[in-house]
Write a structure and sequence with these properties.
single chain, 106 residues, alpha+beta, 23% strand
Length: 106
């Protein structure tokens, strides 16, 4: 939680268009709850030709990184991409997280 609060504080002071969400805490909390419920996230900005799907990579119950897939809107309908690729992304994220958990300490 501390790390998220720090990142949101930094982003909330940004003038970049893509960081605007950090200034709307209510909307951000709703999106985070939805992403946690779904187990995946989407970034679908109509102004861009790409759509991004992402899943969290967790290790020992903590966020380690994200695994994302980017594709153009023309490649396939969003619903098809979600149905086809989200399960694969989730499986890969689980395997990566488990590999980190099982890696010998350095």
């Amino acid at each position: 939680e501390d790390q998220r609060a720090t990142l949101l504080d930094i982003l909330s002071r940004s003038d970049r268009t893509e960081d605007h969400l950090a200034r709307d805490k209510s909307l951000l909390n709703r999106i985070i709850a939805e992403v946690r419920s779904n187990g995946w996230a989407i970034y679908d900005e109509p102004a861009f030709i790409e759509v991004n799907l992402a899943v969290a990579i967790l290790t020992r119950g903590r966020f380690l990184a994200s695994l994302a897939m980017r594709f153009t809107r023309a490649a396939m309908p969003l619903e098809q991409a979600v149905e086809k690729y989200v399960p694969l992304l989730k499986r890969a994220a689980t395997e990566i997280g488990e590999a980190f958990e099982n890696a010998p300490s350095v």
